[in-house]
Each structure stands twice: as C-alpha cells, then as structure tokens.
Specification:
The protein is built from eleven helices and 17 strands. The strands form three sheets. The chain has a nine-stranded mixed beta sheet with strand order 1-2-11-10-3-4-6-5-7, sandwiched between helices. The protein starts with a strand and ends in a 9-residue tail after the last helix.
Length: about 375
C-alpha cells in the first residue's frame, strides 16, 4: 500500500513513492537542493475560456473549466509559473532534466521564463494527437498537438538521454521530435459517474517515452501537478521512484487507487535498464591499450572484420595503412571515403585463436583500471 501525505515534508530527505497533498510551491520549498533526477510538469494551461462550447448536435463540450486553470491575468499566471519553475530548478540535480508540456495558450510564456531562469533547451517535442477534438465552431484550425519543452538545468549539464532505447522503440529509426500518440481514452481514462475525472489526463504512452528517454531505474521522478497519477503509474511500471504533488483531494484519492492497482512483476531489474552504456563510458585513449600490452606496435588491425583492409599499429598509437598515417578514427574515415567513423567500432584485432574481435572489447578492460573521480 502506498500512502499520501497532507503535511509539508521536512528538509532532511526526499521520501520517494508518495503523493503529497497541498500547494506545489509550498511543498517544493521543503525539498532539499538537487534531490530530483527528472521532472515532468503539466501545469495549468490558463485557457482564458469565457464562453461555453457546444457541439453541432447541441451537446455541451466538457472542456477545461476547472478552478485550477483560472487566473485573473497574464501577470498572475507568470508569477505563479516563475515560482514553481524556480523551485523545480533548485531541486533538480545538476545533470537532471525537466519536461514541461503545454498548449499554445501557455507554452511560449513558460519557455520564456525557463530560459530566463537558466534552463538550457534540448528539444521541443510535439505530441501530435491522432484523435484530436474537432474545432466545432469552424473558425480555427483543429488544435491537434501540444508542445513539450525538454531542458537541462544548465548548458553544460551531462544529462541522461537513452538514444538507442528510443531508436529501438521506433523500429530501429532515430526517434523524431513529433510523437503521434492518441488522447487518453477507453479503459485508461479515469471516470467519476461516467464522466472523465480529470479534464487533461495524459496518456501513459506519452509518459512512457519521456521516462524511458531521460531516466534510469532507481531515479526519482517528480510531478508537481500530479493529477490522477499517470507519471507515478508509468514510473512504477518502469522501476523508477516517483513523487507526486497534488492539491485536489479527489485527484489524490483517484491517483492513490490507481497506483495501488499497479502490479509489478518480479523480474530481473536489468530488463528496465536501457541506458546507453557506451555513451556513459569513461573516456579511454586508444594508446592505453598499447601502454598496457593489450595491443602492441607492429600488430595488425582489420577494418570491419572482413580483412580487406589491414593497418599496422605504430608505437605512438597511430595506424599506418598504404602510407596513410592517422588515429583509429582518422584511418577509419580515410577508408570510408571521408565519412566520419568511430574507429572503436570499425577496427578489429586477431585473438589467440585467430578470431577477429572489435578493439572496443578491450576498452572495457581498461575502464575497470581507471580510478574514479574520488581517486584523483
């Protein structure tokens, strides 16, 4: 059983896997600095609706008319946004990232404030709704997308991005910044007395991509506008920790019931770890392989394991091939006709059994011999 709390947490620790009921700004102020790995924020849109919307069949559209989306003017909305964004940046770890979603009503105001606060934009992603609500009055284009801003805490943050995991989810093609995902409907949509419980409940598929792309198992994911708990439900399914902040007691109750119903299969935790190991690997110069005797001067390397191209290792760790001398990357680029090439992936050595193995296999041996930052 998970529990939610209506009190402000102390400033000693962040207790994960809980819903905290209350005002997000007040609660965020109780969080310690740099305690959160990833933030997903779905703040009020400030739609400024001033009239009812009717369908052609004379039925009323159940749009966003909740009290939490009402602000007297732009200045009030900007002050509110600046407050919660400032606290989010403070609690975000140096290498953490934040995702903020909005519509054309508010996303540009939020983006302006985020840049002023020092966030560094990595991408804007379009959530293209495959089943959008029509424009019933026929006076504008159908609003078929929402915009997400993905940002790091600062320009030089070493943020997480599981590139290959996203590529795998996209059938081996590089994931684009336009995501075609349907609105939350059917059994996934939470209802009260037959009507949708929350006017802007996000689909789990959207949060799945966000969480997979920019977090790892065990990370703490914060949602300061938790609503009915989509972020927590997906985080729990993916072996991540989560914290939800929500001021509406009805939403808190629904989210708690939803999270309690999420069952986690007892499987190997490694199945949830899709981080890019190569990207996060410590930098190893090719010369280290020669200095440690894993490779030696005069030894032959072969390009792409087909033995059609052979290079010889020189004492300074460069390679020579047909009078061309260069690093493992320069020689690979030379053979590829000028196309940039990662030599670690293209050059192979011959092991004691006469089999060709990628030199990249030897790099992992060196990595374990390099002291971490604490050993400097």
């Amino acid at each position: 059983m998970l529990f939610f709390y209506s009190f402000i947490m102390d400033n000693q620790d962040v207790k994960p896997d809980q819903i905290i009921e209350g005002d997000c700004i007040d609660i965020l102020k109780s969080f310690p600095d740099e305690s959160i790995d990833l933030i997903f924020a779905d703040p009020p849109y400030n739609l400024q609706l001033n009239q009812k919307l009717w369908r052609p069949n004379h039925t009323l559209v159940n749009g966003v008319k909740d009290d939490w989306d009402q602000f007297p003017d732009f200045a009030s909305y900007d002050n509110f946004s600046l407050s919660w964004l400032s606290e989010c940046r403070r609690v975000l770890k140096d290498n953490g990232t934040i995702w903020v979603i909005g519509s054309y009503h508010n996303i540009f105001r939020l983006g302006y404030l985020m840049q002023d606060l020092g966030f560094w934009f990595l991408n804007d992603v379009l959530w293209v709704k495959t089943n959008p609500m029509p424009n019933f009055r026929g006076v504008r284009f159908t609003n078929a997308h929402e915009t997400l801003i993905w940002a790091s805490k600062r320009k030089k943050s070493k943020y997480k991005f599981n590139y290959h995991a996203m590529k795998n989810l996209n059938d081996g093609r590089q994931m684009r910044s336009d995501w075609q995902i349907p609105l939350c409907t059917g059994a996934e949509r939470l209802k009260i007395n037959g009507k949708k419980a929350h006017s802007t409940q996000k689909p789990e598929a959207l949060l799945y991509r966000i969480i997979i792309s920019s977090s790892n198992p065990g990370d703490i994911i914060l949602d300061p506008f938790f609503g009915t708990g989509t972020t927590g439900a997906v985080a729990k399914k993916l072996d991540r920790h989560w914290i939800g902040i929500e001021q509406n007691s009805t939403y808190v109750r629904l989210a708690q019931e939803r999270l309690d119903a999420v069952e986690i299969k007892k499987v190997d935790p490694a199945l949830y770890d899709v981080s890019d190991k190569k990207r996060n690997q410590k930098r190893v110069p090719f010369g280290n392989l020669i200095e440690t005797g894993l490779l030696s001067p005069g030894q032959s390397l072969y390009f792409n394991a087909d033995r059609n191209w052979e290079a010889t290792i020189r004492a300074d760790s460069t390679l020579i091939i047909n009078e061309f001398i260069g690093s493992i990357h320069q020689t690979a680029k030379h053979i590829a006709g000028g196309k940039p090439s990662n030599g670690w992936l293209h050059w192979y050595y011959e092991d004691l059994d006469g089999d060709l193995k990628p030199i990249d296999d030897l790099r992992s041996i060196i990595v374990f011999q390099i002291p971490n930052d604490e050993g400097k």
